[in-house]
Amino acid sequence: MKRSIIITSNININSSSSRAVINGTPPPVIAARALVLGSLLSITGTSLLLSSVFFASGCNSLDELISTWKSWAPKKLHQMENSLERAFGISVGRERRSSVEAYERATKGMTEEEELEYIAEKYGGELNWDDNNNEE
């Protein structure tokens, strides 16, 4: 004895416009609802994550949180770069840090004009700016 499976669906195709309608709702309405729901969920999730970080850090104000993260984030970046170098032999941050330190040593005490001349000499270009801060 053969068994047959009958699947019913609520998708109707209108022959005149050839648009699928799901449960009586046109696709643009479903897409708009999905967009609204997705946006709402992403904003809510991000807000919950940020507020949990704020309260877990023990900070009392947004300024305190920002100053805490400004000191915390570079330390963690340095630790991560060192871990990558030890684990995989990838030198990620050493060159960047050494070039920043060399630049800071070279330009210490220079005026803005002297610093621009240093950059032009080092990187082989000349920067010409007019009064409106547009490159000539």
What does this structure look like?
- With 136 residues, the protein is mainly α.
- It contains 4 helices and 2 strands; from the N terminus they run E-E-H-H-H-H.
- It has helices spanning 27-57, 62-88, 94-107, 112-123, and strands at 11-13, 20-22.
- A two-stranded antiparallel sheet has the order 1-2.
- The longest helix is centred in the N-terminal third of the chain and has 31 residues, at 27-57.
- The radius of gyration is 30 Å and the shape is elongated.
- The relative contact order is 0.03.
- The mean pLDDT is 80.
Give a short account of the largest sheet: 2 strands, antiparallel
Could you tell me the radius of gyration in angstroms?
30 Å
From the N-terminal CA to the C-terminal CA, the straight-line distance is: 86 Å
User: How many distinct helices?
Assistant: 4
Overall structural class, as computed from helix and strand content, comes to mainly alpha
Which parts are unreliable, with pLDDT below 50 for 5 consecutive residues or more?
none
Mean pLDDT: 80
> How much of the polypeptide forms β-strand, as a percent range?
under 5%
Q: Please provide the ordered H/E string of secondary-structure elements.
A: EEHHHH
Shape: elongated
Spatial strand order of the main sheet: 1-2
How much helicity do the residues have? 55-70%
Q: Count the strands? A: 2
Strand and helix layout:
Elements: E1 11-13, E2 20-22, H1 27-57, H2 62-88, H3 94-107, H4 112-123
Task: Summarize the structure in short.
With 136 residues, the protein is mainly α. The protein is 62% helix and 4% strand.
